[in-house]
Amino acid sequence: MSNVGGVPIEQCTLSLPRFGAWRAVAKLTGGSAPAGAVSLTVGDLVLEGTILRGGLDDADDPSVTVVGAPGWERPIRSPLSYQSDGGIRLRTVLAELSTRAAEPIEQPNDVSLGQAWAIPAVGRLRDALAALHRAGRLERWRVDPDGVTRFGARAGTEVTSRAEVLKRDESLSHLEVGIDSVADMLPGNILNGEAIRRVLVHESRARRYAEVWT
């Protein structure tokens, strides 16, 4: 059964982008809303995330927002500055950004950033990742279901479970698909010969379906 931290879900919308962080908004069946780090289970997909916001629509209908790796939204409170005649390594900068975000990462292939690299105390930690990407030193970041931040597009596999096309909008490369497996619909996987770029999974007691952009 789909749940947040063991509390059953009555209704849920899960956003799975190709890059960046996944996010879910869930209405629970009742009881106390969980807080902090949690496991979110939607169908057969388990995601490790953090409760960003818990609400109480009424006494019997708590709702929560769960996000993967929210630490990248932290502001850069002090500048980072590196200098070395031997060259600054990407691995060194990413390790410090990961520490500041309090989010685990999988280090990509290491490259030199030159003899100096600076990150001003402006914006958020995700902006520092974006700056490295714009400089051609780092692939775009994503948060995987295990809660680990990785870099570059996810290597996908063919969707083999039921994916019944209910609606199609060719102009937007958008499908509405009846599904059995949520885990099969991760961005990067191949559906009907096309790579999935973004997914919105909608689940209620009555049905489960996905909006898919390819």
Summarize the model shown.
With 214 residues, the protein is mainly beta. It has helices at residues 90-101, 125-134, and strands at 3-4, 7-17, 23-28, 37-42, 45-56, 62-67, 80-83, 116-119, 141-143, 149-151, 163-169, 174-179, 190-191, 194-195, 198-204, 208-213.
Please describe the topology of this protein.
Elements: E1 3-4, E2 7-17, E3 23-28, E4 37-42, E5 45-56, E6 62-67, E7 80-83, H1 90-101, E8 116-119, H2 125-134, E9 141-143, E10 149-151, E11 163-169, E12 174-179, E13 190-191, E14 194-195, E15 198-204, E16 208-213
Antiparallel strand pairs: 1-2, 1-4, 2-3, 2-15, 3-6, 4-5, 5-6, 7-8, 9-10, 11-12, 12-16, 13-14, 15-16
Distance between the termini: 28 Å
By helix and strand content, what is the structural category? mainly beta
- For the largest beta sheet, what order do the strands appear in spatially? 1-2-3-6-5-4
Beta-strand residue fraction: 35-45%
Give me the strand/helix succession: EEEEEEEHEHEEEEEEEE
Q: Write down the Rg.
A: 19 Å
Biggest pleated sheet: 6 strands, antiparallel, barrel
* Helicity range: 10-25%
SS summary, helix count: 2
User: Please, what is the oligomeric state?
Assistant: single chain
Please provide the count of β strands.
16
Mean pLDDT: 93
CA-based shape: globular
Low confidence ranges? none
Structure, explained:
By secondary structure, the chain is mainly beta. Helix content is 10%, strand content 41%. The protein has helices at 90-101, 125-134; strands at residues 3-4, 7-17, 23-28, 37-42, 45-56, 62-67, 80-83, 116-119, 141-143, 149-151, 163-169, 174-179, 190-191, 194-195, 198-204, 208-213. It has a 6-stranded antiparallel β-barrel. The two termini are 28 Å apart. 27% of the residues are buried. The model has no long low-confidence stretch (mean pLDDT 93).
